[in-house]
Amino acid sequence: MTQRILFIGNSYTYCNELPTMLAQLAAAGGKDVEVHQVTTGGVTLEWHVQNEATLAALTEPWDIVVLQEHSIRPIQDTPKMAMAAAALQAIIASTGAQTVLFMTWARQHFPEMQAGLARVYNAVAQDIGARVAPVGLAWEAALAADPSLALYTEDKSHPTPLGSYLAACVFYATFFGESPVGLPAKLMTAGGEVLVAIPEAQARLVQSAAWEVCLKS
Predict the structure, then answer these.
(1) Residue 190 has what pLDDT?
(2) For residue 51, what are the β-bridge partners?
(3) Percent of the chain having pLDDT more than 90?
(4) Separation CA 28–CA 122 (nearest Å)
(5) CA of residue 204 relative to chain centroid, distance
(6) Are 184 and 198 in contact (CB under 8 A)?
(7) 11 contacts 68 by C-beta, under 8 angstroms
(8) pTM given for the model
C-alpha cells in the first residue's frame, strides 16, 4: 500500500531534493511511498498557515505531513511557531494524517543552538500530539563522530547533498521504525540524474548516526 507524504517548509526541505531522496531510500527498503512538497525559500510555518497552496494541499489525503519551521524561528519566536504548528496540526488531524515535525540543525557557527531547537521542537510536538524527526540531533551526532563531514554549504546554514542524505535517513527511520544502515549510498532522480553519491564508509557513519538518534528519541 502506498504511503502519501507531504512536506511543508522552505529551502531546508527542497535543497538537494530531500523528499526525493527519502522516496529513493524507501524504495530501496521495499517501501512504496509518494512524496509531495509545498516549499518556498525563507518562509515560516506562520506563512504556510496563510498560504492558499498549502491549505489546498492539506485537503488531499495524506498519511504523513511533515512540518519544517524556519531555521531560527523556534529560538527567536517560539510562541509564533507553536501557534502556527497547532493551526496546521488541527487541519492535518481532521484528515486523519499524522504530523511529524522536522527538527532542523544548528547553524555551523552556532552549534549550541541545537539544544534550544531540540527543546522547542519536542515541546511543541508534545503539545499538539505530533512526532519529531530528530534531524538536527543526528547532524550533531554525526559531526561528533567525524567533524570533517561536509554537511553544511558555504553559508553555514543550508545542507550539502550529504546533509540532506542524513536528513532522509532520519525520516526513513522515523517513518518506518527501521534502520537505514545498509541502504544505498548513491541515489538517482527519476530522470536518471545523480542526487547524491557518498563513499560507503561515510554513508554507514551517517546512517548509523540517524538510527542511533532515532532509537533514543
Answers:
(1) 78
(2) none
(3) 96
(4) 30
(5) 19
(6) no
(7) no
(8) 0.98
Q: What are phi and psi of 104, to 5 degrees?
A: -85, 180
Tell me how many helices (H) and strands (E) the chain has: 10, 7
What is the Cα–Cα distance from 69 to 11, expressed in whole angstroms? 10
Residues pairing with 132 in the sheet: 101
Helix residue ranges, H only, 50-199: 52-57, 73-76, 78-95, 113-128, 135-145, 161-176
* Contact predicate 210/138, CB 8 Å: yes
* CB 102, CB 13: distance < 8 Å: yes
- Per-residue pLDDT averaged across 66-93, rounded? 98
In this structure, what DSSP letter does residue 16 have?
A: G
Element (H, E) at 204: helix 200-216
- Residue 80 one-letter amino acid: K
Rg (CA), the chain: 16
Which residue matches cell numbers 499538539? 128
Task: Express each pLDDT in 11-32 by its tens digit.
Answer: 999 999 999 999 999 999 999 9
Q: What is the pLDDT of residue 33?
A: 97
Report whether 10 contacts 41 (CB < 8 A). Answer: yes
Q: Give the span between the Cα atoms of 50 and 66, in whole angstroms.
A: 17
Cell of 17: 531534493
What residues pair up with 172 in beta bridges, in sequence order?
Answer: none
| Cell numbers representing residue 40 in the block | 518556498
